[in-house]
Amino acid sequence: MSKLDVKKVVVAYSGGLDTSVIIPWLKENYGCEVVAFVADVGQDAHELVGIEEKAIASGASECYVVDLKDELVKDYIYPTLKTGAYYEGKYLLGTSMARPVIAKAQVEIARKVGADALAHGCTGKGNDQVRFEGAFAALAPDLKVIAPWREWDLVSREQCLDYLAARNIPCAASLTKIYSRDANAWHISTEGGVLESTWNAPNDDCWVWTTDPEKAPNEPEYVTLQVEKGEVVGVDGKKLSPYQALVVLNEKGAKHGVGRIDIVENRLVGMKSRGCYETPGGTIMMEALRSVEQLVLDKASFEFRQELGIKASHLVYDGRWFTPLCKSVMAAAQSLADDVNGEVVIKLYKGQATATQKRSPNSLYSEEFATFGADEVYDQSHAGGFIRLYSLASRIRSLNAAKK
Amino acid sequence: MSKLDVKKVVVAYSGGLDTSVIIPWLKENYGCEVVAFVADVGQDAHELVGIEEKAIASGASECYVVDLKDELVKDYIYPTLKTGAYYEGKYLLGTSMARPVIAKAQVEIARKVGADALAHGCTGKGNDQVRFEGAFAALAPDLKVIAPWREWDLVSREQCLDYLAARNIPCAASLTKIYSRDANAWHISTEGGVLESTWNAPNDDCWVWTTDPEKAPNEPEYVTLQVEKGEVVGVDGKKLSPYQALVVLNEKGAKHGVGRIDIVENRLVGMKSRGCYETPGGTIMMEALRSVEQLVLDKASFEFRQELGIKASHLVYDGRWFTPLCKSVMAAAQSLADDVNGEVVIKLYKGQATATQKRSPNSLYSEEFATFGADEVYDQSHAGGFIRLYSLASRIRSLNAAKK
Amino acid sequence: MSKLDVKKVVVAYSGGLDTSVIIPWLKENYGCEVVAFVADVGQDAHELVGIEEKAIASGASECYVVDLKDELVKDYIYPTLKTGAYYEGKYLLGTSMARPVIAKAQVEIARKVGADALAHGCTGKGNDQVRFEGAFAALAPDLKVIAPWREWDLVSREQCLDYLAARNIPCAASLTKIYSRDANAWHISTEGGVLESTWNAPNDDCWVWTTDPEKAPNEPEYVTLQVEKGEVVGVDGKKLSPYQALVVLNEKGAKHGVGRIDIVENRLVGMKSRGCYETPGGTIMMEALRSVEQLVLDKASFEFRQELGIKASHLVYDGRWFTPLCKSVMAAAQSLADDVNGEVVIKLYKGQATATQKRSPNSLYSEEFATFGADEVYDQSHAGGFIRLYSLASRIRSLNAAKK
Amino acid sequence: MSKLDVKKVVVAYSGGLDTSVIIPWLKENYGCEVVAFVADVGQDAHELVGIEEKAIASGASECYVVDLKDELVKDYIYPTLKTGAYYEGKYLLGTSMARPVIAKAQVEIARKVGADALAHGCTGKGNDQVRFEGAFAALAPDLKVIAPWREWDLVSREQCLDYLAARNIPCAASLTKIYSRDANAWHISTEGGVLESTWNAPNDDCWVWTTDPEKAPNEPEYVTLQVEKGEVVGVDGKKLSPYQALVVLNEKGAKHGVGRIDIVENRLVGMKSRGCYETPGGTIMMEALRSVEQLVLDKASFEFRQELGIKASHLVYDGRWFTPLCKSVMAAAQSLADDVNGEVVIKLYKGQATATQKRSPNSLYSEEFATFGADEVYDQSHAGGFIRLYSLASRIRSLNAAKK
User: Fold this and answer.
1) Using the beta-carbon criterion (under 8 Å), do D307 and C302 form an inter-chain contact?
2) Catalytic (active site) residue D99
3) pTM (2 d.p.)
């Protein structure tokens, strides 16, 4: 494949070793101007300190830092939560949900600066390349896409550091890095190192945000979440924006070791990977939302919501955010969420977030029905007819068999 | 509805207050012989002590006690576990899975004693009446079915006790009973009392089998499960039958407070109910099986297994065990389970069962792929083509839109 | 069950034998005032001639005739069509879709006249009782419901005629009626008579609206449909309302014998029934909508639309229109339909409606791609990488197996 | 990508222009021995005449012709039919089902002759490359794969003919070929030419096997199919093997213009294509199988079968035959098919195959139920209870709303 003709490229820049190499590499290999774009999605704040200077020092002509934290939680995470999506039954999609909001903002910067190309620092083995490029295809099919990791022949941190040193580009990155990590307002993921064998248990240093459940407080703590239309709108009675609610719950959850998972998952690109994810606030939110649903959704609606959750988990994981199918699934979930209003008390204790109390103005649960006495709405004699018809096909089938 | 003409009825007898009343009631109201049938599915052993004498004293002509523990675990629970079924995302179907094995054995006793009717002690508000009668419809559509709770006008424990007293039938049952419970080898459920308001947290006395996580050992314990074809076949290296494995794991799990859930669920008969369930060993088994699946199932297979789990959860909950659909779903799950072989270490700690180590001879996880270096099977340059085609429809759609 | 206390009831009145009996029967058995409600949903117009007089003559205090034709097609049929629902793969849900619009209007009349009860003339064996009462439960749970067919002991037409004669109520109904029929703007259904054995082919007189394909014109006819957002908005270039479009297409389709089906279906109440349905215009509309979807929906969206179609077919058939689940499924389908714009030419010939030409401004089909030459968007070399990753899990699995 | 090191390659050889070029091209470009493999899957018999000589003349060292007709129909088509799969609602998967049986036999030849590579003549734009290579990955991950169309720079028939002429390899292929076709025992497909615009109707010459419905006999013909366990086992009372049954029904169907479809479909590789498919016998078989299912499958089973059909349609279309997921879906379908026994009369007339009579020993349809009189199994009064419980959640929800 011959090199593309590129004049100005916007690169998703993190300030880390990889993307620091990408800036000079793009300039040298494509002879183009490079604009750095930094998405503030709630990653470790010190990563953003001095990042503009770093980008310029690496050769970028400009550097844009865009605060996407509110948008990420409000427009990407909250809609996904309504579907109840856990990828492969466990993963709360922290990295997956951040990619489309970053890619969208990156395209907007590209339009603003008149760029003709987009670049990202994802490797050729992972999901993120698909998520970025899937978003680019949907939002800016006219822009060229450069994925340096699939092109260059740098295959070690040492080579990357040498590359920068040879060009006198300062870089504080260390030669060795045990784990590969990704963090945003919602979660932090950890891969590599000891985790590379599935027969190894995670080490203590695999976990970053959350207290080890064994070292978490011996006393449980209770937190109350207010839920409206499938969204957490308040904590302990205080109205909060989605991002604020997440920050508060992250702190509470992390203290009690809530939200750790250790999973081997199927990547979209056909291989399996193993990761440790910490999603303390998100785990609390999911428990709260699912608990209100227990009160509100009828049997068939609950089942459909579960099916939507599976579908959404794949769409979001697979980088399908900006597709008609994802929009359709989200529309269905939003419709079901219209009734999901209420309040839930969550107990936090040594790694667990457990709903202990729940109520809703839309609750279909009725204390009267639950008791043994007579009531007006439910007449036990109805059950006989119900069962008879409900089992009719079984009965006929069995009578048939007997006749033979 | 006029009374059925019945000569001999087999009643599912538990030795409790309800079914003790049912025996004389059936005799008086149907003028028939009553045979008691007791299913030993692993409920509290002292419930079975002297149960035959009790049945005879209540007026039964005969009493059969049948040990169904092995059959329950092997033929009902294990197949269901392969589907990954959690009803409404949480409930491990303990009561649901026991009903078909009981009903089947009850029908066999009816055939053996030449009965023309079957009776059960389920109330008219619950799921169990549907599960029993659904099984009866499939297995013995020619036998009549009597559901005394839907017929008689006894509506309190006091009335039931008076009924027995008036007939000089001895009964040790107490006048008040706070909770309604059901237990078998797999689980114990608790309903009623404080749980009747969803805004009440469960009391300590809502939990029977499991240690309160707050009082569980401060030291974690590790247990290793051997898995073959989707079934737990050994614990800590010792080969065990399904029932034996369950007994061992129940003990370990209960000690660490594992397997408690508190759920508001949709009953099949259209109302919601709230229950606390304890499934210590089952929770460990599920964690182990799902963990091996993480290694073994590809992305699309994993998704289908999740869908099968949702379907199976409804079929089993709804009393559809003996239907062609249930058989079909189980066949699909068994097929996927053929590769589910391996070993998992589970950490038990204060209410949680967490897989920390897992391996499988069928694992699709490859350490080589997970690292950053080059490898033979996966060529990063392939990803470019993959993404291009994977996103092609998005690209075309977007280019279309731009044209307009 | 003791009789309900009813003061004023609104009965869904058709002018036929059954509902003519129901009016005096309700008055005699419930001692209440009876208001007749007639839904004009496009059934045979002569059924409506003089219907108000007939109702009054039968004893109704008032009679309301409400024109629901536009609402039926616009608000019930069109949304359902977007889902692509065919019940059990064949049935276009003609009767099912009409029930909720009728029930809703009936409730509105009940509110208007201050009635405290609703009645319908559906038998106890069919789906319609569930559809009516399901709608009543959702829209007016406070109103009592009377289903005379489940209460009275009239079991033949002769008994019904005698009942009317004894009360001097005039009725033109004949003593024998071979078939049971239901018609509205969308379809006509025929059950009974020769159809009662599935081993009988339908007779000529089983079909009412459509020409026998064998007697249909020997020359095909072509009709062009304009489609916007998943709705037929014009025919042969002429803008038409949903109902008008249906009328035009019914005429064309009927002439060519289009839209006959003969199906054995599963009723909701557990038994199977056999019916012949004629849906000439609807069949043409479905062919047109599905054809535009072929151009517009990507692979995964098309599959989801098919799944929504199955779900919707059951929800609509089962009388679940006014449920949160139905609303959610419709929201998903509407979202996908947003792109379904275009134009389709349908060939009508001897029972078939076949799309021969189709185009759409949103078409993802590209002539360039379809040809063998080189092109810009699709690079054949991409396919190698795609396949490699797409098959990666298969490859690893197989390599694993070889190692053993 | 550097050329692979190949010693002996087995190429799927058709005798057509493309694969005739591939033989010398492989020898020249890979310096390897080339073995030709011809799959007899029921394509036009004259294509096989003298094919071994042709292969040798083109440079193959050996040529194996393997008769796969019985295996194709018995082991690939029949299992798929049980799922009811129509790709995107229409396409009967003719080409898709043939690829795995061919690939499997090709791998067997490769093992037999000790080859280290496999080659096919599929283009880089189609599905077949994925199907072949997907099968190779599952069956022979150790063998190298060569896809000449993705490598060479021949882009026209003229260039291909020149290539052969320059090497004195005889070839009877014409310079121009309007349509691209694929045929086997099940179907023939036609792409290209006039079909490249979706706004063009197919020309007469787009159809090969089937009579134009307008020219088909004016008299309908009736054919009776015997069905056992979801398989057509006889026609008009004569027991036939799967392949024999297909041959007989192809002839009858083709005569009456049955089995034409014209579809725009989503290829797996992200683009849309348009094709005309003729599947006369298959269309009759599908109508027969679905008709027996109407009698035999209960409501929930029928719905699951429909879902399996959608899933299977994608798996088979996408080249996923040799995957655990496909095996699982087939296991589920086979389980449901166990009851699908019976007999169906199909009317063939001017393009249509319509079941007019059907019966089954497992039929759940009961004439008694269908009539209006009283019966033993179904008591109309049961319906009241059924509806009450069936609508309970709706009722509670609505009562809730009224309270607010």
Assistant:
1) no
2) yes
3) 0.97
The one catalytic residue in D40, D58, D99, D291 is D99
- Residue B290 is a catalytic residue: no
Q: Chain C interface, mutation test: which of A125, A318, A321, A325, most C Cβ atoms within 10 Å?
A: A325
Is residue A248 within 8 A of residue A235, CB to CB? The reply is yes
Amino acid letter, residue A241 = S
C171: confidence class by pLDDT, cuts 50, 70, 90: confident
**Is the CB of residue D273 less than 8 Å from the CB of residue D265?**
yes
Residue among C362, C385, C404 minimizing CB distance to B386: C385
Token representation of residue D121: 């003549």
Cα C93 to Cα C71, C137, D13, D84, D202: the distances in Å are 16, 21, 49, 21, 32
Q: Do D390 and B270 touch (CB under 8 A)?
A: yes
Whole-angstrom Cα distance, residue D247 to residue C100? 48
Given a cut of 90, whether residue D161 has pLDDT beyond it is yes
Residues D364/A361, Cβ–Cβ less than 8 Å: no
Tell me what the mean pLDDT of segment C31-56 comes to.
96
What pLDDT, on the 0 to 100 scale, is given for residue D173?
A: 87
Cβ–Cβ < 8 Å for D333, D81 = no
Higher-scoring residue by pLDDT: C54, D382: C54
Q: Quick check: helix, strand or coil at residue A288?
A: helix
**How is residue D194 annotated by DSSP?**
G
**Residue A343 φ then ψ, to 5°:** -145, 140
**Torsion from C-alpha of D397, D399, D403, D404, nearest 10 degrees:** 30
Per-residue pLDDT of B246-274, as tens digits, reads 999 999 999 999 999 999 999 999 999 99
Report the distance separating Cα B261 and Cα A339, nearest Å: 24
A31: buried, middle or exposed (CB in 10 Å: 19+, 13-18, 0-12)? Answer: exposed
**Rounded CA gap, D133 and D319, in Å?**
8
Chain D touched by B180 (CB under 8 Å): no
Residue numbers in A near B210 (CB within 8 A): none
Given this model, what pLDDT does residue A390 score? 86
- Could you confirm whether C360 is annotated as catalytic? no
Residue with tokens 């019985």, as numbered in its chain:
D70
Sort strands A179-183 and A260-266 into parallel, antiparallel or unpaired.
unpaired
Question: Which residues on B lie below 8 Å from C384 (Cβ)?
Answer: 382, 385
Q: Which residues of A182-212 are buried (b: 16+ CB within 10 A; e: fewer)?
A: bbbbbbbbbbbbebbebeebbeeebbebbbe
Position B20 pLDDT exceeds 70? yes
Percent with pLDDT over 70 in chain D: 97
What confidence tier does A105 reach under pLDDT thresholds 50, 70, 90? Answer: very high
Q: Helix B381-390 and helix B392-403: axis angle, to 10°? A: 50
Strand partners, A22: none
Mean pLDDT of C164-171: 92
Angle formed by the axes of helices C242-255 and C280-296, to 10°? 110
Helices (H) and strands (E) in chain D, counts: 15, 14
Q: Which residues of C touch A333 (CB under 8 A)?
A: 328
pLDDT for res C257: 98
Chain B residues near residue A403 by CB distance under 8 angstroms: none
Average pLDDT on A166-173 reads 90
Q: Is B339 a catalytic residue?
A: no
Minimum-distance CB partner of A327 among C270, C327, C335: C335
- What digits encode the pLDDT tens for the residues C355-398? 999 999 999 998 766 554 545 566 777 888 888 888 889 888 88
CA of C400 vs chain B CAs: smallest distance (Å): 7
Higher local confidence (pLDDT), B3 or C272: C272
Burial class (CB in 10 A: 0-12, 13-18, 19+), A152: middle
Touching B (3+ Cβ pairs <8 A), the chains are A, C, D
Cβ burial, residue A90 (10 Å; 0-12/13-18/19+): middle
Q: Which residues of A are catalytic?
A: 18, 99, 128, 180
